Structure formats: structure tokens, C-alpha cells
């Protein structure tokens, strides 16, 4: 299954769980359920936010961005992973693999920056509620979202295209998809520049937003402690703890992958970690950020009521 060392690689074989057929069947079922839940939950959020004018606020504007992003993020790789579970030789062309790698990297960085923007939005809403409508104007919201999408493209896709990888040996990727760290380990050209840029980029897109989010929630915590109502404090703590759980899982696993020393060997542990930050957060984000909110529940009841009336 490997190419000869003196030939150029034109396709890759994605190992996944092909060595464990029974585990692969269970993995396929779990992944399919997760993907369908991600599509359903995030699509529902987008529909409700578009449909109900009461949800046309800064918070739900960013949530709609996150929902759209999560649909794109999971769709960039999970359909291919599901197909690979059903074929005997899960092959992917070099061009498709690099496109999948760039898309996953780009959308992952957008999520990192967008979660930081959402933490800033909540910090202003709770810390300075009277001036919140003025400080988080519609123009600023659009600017923050645009910066997240555009800067991520400049930080990921452009450098990847300007420093191409060369593959001239092994073509076995010990992963479910063309994830950056799994692919780059097969490159045969000098990677010192790529590794330096990856570390700098990871600091900007992973570590810095994560520290900012923790600082924002620290400020939110101080504001919550000033709430006199015990029920109000309990509700705020419940919401914040849910947000932080998703954030810590996403950033913690991504940081452990991209900011720790790497070797040339792909390990099964890396595949499990990639599931934690690539599959679970997009599936749980609708529930954590939206579906438990009374405004969203009200919009859903309103939508279902009008459908029943019609």
C-alpha cells in the first residue's frame, strides 16, 4: 500500500480504524448519529434566529455564525470519514486531501477566534448591561465576525499555499481524515519553516484566545457574584460552567495537539483527541449556547404553533 520512495505520492490511504473492523462499525454508527445531531441542531438554530426578530441581537448574531461554522466544519471531513468506514481501501487523492486539510484548519481557527468574540460579547452584556446596546452595535458585531473569518484565512490558507508540502514516500495516513499534523508527518521536504510558523500561528489562534476567554469569564464571575438573587446566581453559574466546559474541551485538546512537541510517528491517541475537538463541540454547541435559552424555546414554540395553525 505504500508508494516507492523514489516516486511522487498521488493519493493517500486513511488508516482510521480499518485494523479493527468491529470497532469501525460502532465508530461509524456513533459518528453518523453525531453528524446528524450536529446538522439538525445547528440548522434549527439558524432557522429560529432568521425567523424570529426577537433573536436579532448581538449574542444570537454570533451564535448564528457559530452554527453555520459548525455545519461547515463537520461537513468538511465527516462525510468522507463515514464513507471510508464502508470501503475496503479508504483512498483519497492528493488534491482532495490537501483541500480537506486546508478547509479543516481554516474553519477550526475561525471557531477559535469566534469563541473569543462571543466571550467578549457576554463579558460586556453582564459587566456593563446598560451600555451593552451601544458598545455592541450592529456595525461592530459585523466587523468582529468579519475579522474572525478573514484573519483566519490569512493565518491558515495563505501560508499553506505559499509553503507547499512535498510527498515522495509513504502514503499511509494514520488518521480518520487529512488532519494537518497527520499529513505533515509524511512530507519529505524541510519542515523547519512550517513548524516555526505553526507554533507562532497556534499561539495567536489557540493560546491567546483561550487566555482571553478565561480572563473574560473571570470578569463575568465577579459580576455574577454581585447578583443578589440566589436563583439568578445559580442560573448564571450554570450557563457559564456549560460554556466553559465546551471551551476547555475544544481548546484543551487542540492545544495539546498543536502546541506540544511532535515526532514523525502518528499515534492512535492523536485520532481520539481529534474527535474530542472536531466532533463533540459542534454537536453540543447548539444545546449549550442556544436551545436551553428561554428566548430560543419561545421562538421554537412560536414556529411550531404557526405550523400547526396552518
Automatic annotation (TrEMBL):
Q: Name one Pfam family in it.
A: 7tm_4
The protein's matches in SUPFAM superfamilies, at most eight in alphabetical order, are given as: Family A G protein-coupled receptor-like
Q: Which UniProt keywords apply?
A: Cell membrane, G-protein coupled receptor, Membrane, Olfaction, Receptor, Sensory transduction, Transducer, Transmembrane, Transmembrane helix
Q: Where is the G-protein coupled receptors family 1 profile domain?
A: 41-289
Q: Kindly provide the name given to this protein in its UniProt entry.
A: Olfactory receptor
MF terms from GO for this chain are:
G protein-coupled receptor activity; olfactory receptor activity
Keyword GTP-binding belongs to the record: no
Q: How does it sit in the membrane?
A: Multi-pass membrane protein
Cited CDD domains: 7tmA_OR13H-like
Which family is this sequence assigned to?
Belongs to the G-protein coupled receptor 1 family.
Instruction: Give the main location.
Output: membrane
State its location(s).
Cell membrane
Q: Which GO terms describe its cellular component?
A: plasma membrane
Name the domain of life. Eukaryota
Question: What residue ranges are annotated as transmembrane?
Answer: 25-50, 71-92, 98-120, 140-161, 196-215, 236-260, 272-291
Organism equals: Sarcophilus harrisii
Amino acid at each position: 500500500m505504500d508508494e516507492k520512495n523514489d516516486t511522487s505520492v498521488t493519493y493517500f490511504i486513511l488508516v482510521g480504524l480499518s485494523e479493527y473492523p468491529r470497532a469501525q462499525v460502532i465508530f461509524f454508527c456513533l459518528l453518523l448519529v453525531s453528524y446528524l445531531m450536529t446538522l439538525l441542531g445547528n440548522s434549527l438554530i439558524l432557522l429560529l434566529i432568521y425567523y424570529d426578530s426577537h433573536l436579532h441581537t448581538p449574542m444570537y448574531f454570533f451564535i448564528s455564525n457559530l452554527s453555520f461554522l459548525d455545519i461547515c466544519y463537520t461537513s468538511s471531513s465527516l462525510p468522507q470519514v463515514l464513507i471510508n468506514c464502508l470501503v475496503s481501501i479508504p483512498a483519497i487523492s492528493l488534491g482532495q486531501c490537501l483541500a480537506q486539510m486546508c478547509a479543516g484548519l481554516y474553519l477550526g481557527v475561525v471557531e477559535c477566534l469566534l469563541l473569543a468574540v462571543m466571550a467578549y460579547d457576554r463579558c460586556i452584556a453582564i459587566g456593563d448591561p446598560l451600555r451593552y446596546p451601544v458598545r455592541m452595535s450592529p456595525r461592530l458585531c459585523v466587523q468582529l465576525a468579519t475579522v474572525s473569518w478573514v484573519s483566519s484565512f490569512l493565518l491558515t490558507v495563505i501560508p499553506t499555499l505559499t509553503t507547499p508540502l512535498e510527498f515522495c514516500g509513504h502514503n499511509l495516513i494514520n488518521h480518520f481524515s487529512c488532519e494537518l499534523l497527520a499529513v505533515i508527518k509524511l512530507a519529505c521536504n524541510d519542515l523547519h519553516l512550517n513548524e516555526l510558523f505553526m507554533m507562532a500561528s497556534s499561539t495567536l489562534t489557540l493560546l491567546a484566545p483561550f487566555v482571553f476567554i478565561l480572563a473574560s469569564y473571570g470578569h463575568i464571575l465577579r459580576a455574577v457574584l454581585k447578583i443578589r438573587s440566589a436563583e439568578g446566581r445559580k442560573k448564571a453559574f450554570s450557563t457559564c460552567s456549560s460554556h466553559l466546559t465546551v471551551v476547555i474541551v475544544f481548546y484543551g485538546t487542540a492545544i495539546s495537539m498543536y502546541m506540544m512537541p511532535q515526532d514523525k510517528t502518528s499515534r492512535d491517541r492523536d485520532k481520539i483527541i481529534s474527535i474530542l475537538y472536531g466532533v463533540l463541540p459542534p454537536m453540543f454547541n447548539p444545546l449549550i449556547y442556544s436551545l436551553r435559552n428561554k428566548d430560543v424555546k419561545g421562538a421554537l414554540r412560536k414556529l411550531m404553533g404557526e405550523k400547526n395553525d396552518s
